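Assess this one:
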Amino acid sequence: MPKKIACNVEGIRVLDNENVIEDVQSMELPEIAFTTTEVDSSGMVAAIDVPSMTHIDAMEYSIEHNNGLNCNLLSSPGKHFTELRIARQAFNSAKGEMELESIKHRMTGVLKSSKGGSVEQKNPLGTTETYSVLRYEKEVNGEIVILIDVTAGILKVNGKDYTSDIESLLN
């Protein structure tokens, strides 16, 4: 039996350049997709898509909101420092108790697009902003579990630095 079972998101707070953004409906977090190379060789019955351990495809994140307080700041061209703070409920099966955990996603991105929502009655006329990721960090209960800095060449997952292995071989 699992020791901890993630349950409901109990609350979120979104900050953009240190301003609290209100009336956020949802956020689409970056997809981490490793770049692949197709390998096909004589004697193989099929090609293999081999992922790179040190290079990922371009990432993006988006914020869907209903134009509440400070939402207008999200559509400013240029660099954005976005932080998503999450309080999530988790069931600790060893203790038989519900607990709360802290999850933080910190992203540095550049605005790619701003899309107005559908115009219809009884709809708050929301907007979705999409950003190209320059840096992504995920923290769970105070521990950084993912750190990707595109321009600095950093790719760390669960404490392992995958890009430093390449650098040490080249030195």
